[in-house]
Write a structure and sequence with these properties.
By secondary structure, the protein is an alpha/beta fold. It folds into two domains: 198 residues, 3-Layer(aba) Sandwich (Rossmann fold), CATH 3.40.50.2000; 153 residues, Glycogen Phosphorylase B (Rossmann fold), CATH 3.40.50. Helices cover 40% and strands 16% of the residues. It contains 14 helices and 13 strands. The strands form two sheets. The chain has a seven-stranded parallel beta sheet, with helices on both faces. It has a six-stranded parallel beta sheet with strand order 10-9-8-11-12-13, with helices on one face. Helix 3 runs parallel beside helix 4. The radius of gyration is 21 Å and the shape is globular.
Length: 380
């Protein structure tokens, strides 16, 4: 059995990497990765190095990322990916194509499956935010083009059914991203960054969004943290339009002793950072999906991720300083901290990769193409 997975950025790679390990270890499976986007960009940390360290076979590398920080750049990136992947995917002729989430490359993966008559599996479909970001549209469009759906919650399954997807093609396995917390090797954050003073800190991950002034929001987060004497270990942003302005703010604060800024960290180091932080703040899906597993409070600032399904550890606030300050005070309250102790993550229990692997082995994926299900016709 030949399986091809698509990955264009560190975030989507770690969403499925525990499953990749199970597939790659199976001697009956020829598992390959098609690598593109930010993975091959030195500006964004050249994260292909982590794929190579994991030892996975790369079928093809495609340099697709347009670093123009414009509204059209992601669309151009998608077109480059499509043009340069068709022939190699056709020649490799995988039995199934896997992709996760909502970046522009996943809709290309779905199109490859449709036109090359290859079954596809979309992970993390059925999720929804009311933030107006293109990723939500891409996620839903990709689901409509995909043969099978491995979702993270029952509500995600219900949403796909409401969108007209065949219930028999949807499997709730939970979030594979949680599996990586099971067996990572703990590392010293203070030793890595050479800053012993950072024994207590917030993890800051903020990405730009078109319908808000991202530079101002990011400044407000840093300002409120410093005002409250909270140190921050801060990630550089992703490749979405607006990242240049956020990088300028980082450069203005690069010598501020209250903050440490990083671009990319190897998996065990990032998980150690996440596990050691007092809380996560910004607008990353890590706060929504993963923080509850390690009993961490998450403050989601601004429009991004708005109304996304979340556990009780997540507080949504607007981008004004007073709102951010109130959110920090709330998560530090005795009542909130007590609630975290017995909280369960609605996205799963950390055993999702095995569920996905078992389904891939058991299902006859060819039975799910072509898609002929009509939600207006009741099954007899």
């Amino acid at each position: 059995m030949k399986i091809l997975a698509l990955t264009s950025i560190r975030s989507d790679y770690d969403l499925l990497s525990p499953l990749y390990r199970l597939l790659d270890d199976d001697k009956e499976i020829d598992f390959r990765l098609l690598v593109s986007g930010a993975h091959l960009s030195k500006e964004f940390g050249y994260t292909k190095q982590y794929i190579e360290k994991d030892g996975f076979n790369i079928l093809l590398e495609i340099e697709t990322l347009i670093n123009s920080d414009s509204l059209s750049s992601r669309l151009k990136t998608a077109s480059i990916f499509l043009q340069n992947s068709i022939d190699i995917v056709s020649q490799y002729s995988p039995n199934v194509i896997l992709y996760a989430g909502d970046r522009e490359d996943v809709i290309i993966g779905a199109l490859l499956g449709i036109y090359l008559n290859i079954p596809t599996i979309h992970f993390y479909g059925g999720d929804h935010e009311n933030d107006g970001h293109q990723d939500t549209y891409v996620r839903h469009a990709t689901s409509k083009l995909s043969a099978l759906h491995f979702v993270s919650t029952e509500n995600h399954k219900k949403r796909l059914i409401c969108m007209g997807e065949n219930p028999s093609s949807i499997y709730n396995i939970g979030s594979i991203s949680l599996d990586k917390f099971n067996n990572f090797k703990k590392k010293s954050i203070q030793k890595y960054f050479k800053r012993d003073s950072f024994e207590s800190f917030a993890l800051v991950i903020y990405h730009p969004l078109q319908n808000e002034v991202s530079e101002k929001v990011f400044k407000n987060i840093l300002s409120v943290l410093e005002k409250n004497n909270i140190r921050g270990i801060v990630s550089y942003p992703n490749t979405d339009p607006g990242y240049v302005e956020i990088n300028k703010v980082i450069n203005e604060n690069i010598h501020n002793k209250n903050f440490i800024f990083y671009k990319n960290l190897e998996r065990d180091l990032f998980l150690s950072l996440f596990s050691d932080c007092d809380f996560i703040i910004g607008n990353s899906s890590a706060g929504i999906h993963e923080a509850a597993t390690i009993k961490k409070a998450a403050i989601n600032v601004g429009f991004r991720q708005m109304d996304r399904e979340s556990s009780e550890n997540v507080i949504f606030c607007d981008s004004e300083k007073v709102s951010i300050d109130k959110a920090i005070k709330r998560i530090n309250s005795i009542d909130f901290q007590t609630k975290l102790i017995n909280m369960k993550n609605i996205y799963g229990e950390g055993n999702s990769a095995k569920k996905a692997y078992a389904l891939i082995k058991e299902l006859n994926v060819n039975e799910f193409i072509p898609k002929i299900y009509d939600p207006l016709k009741k099954e007899k």
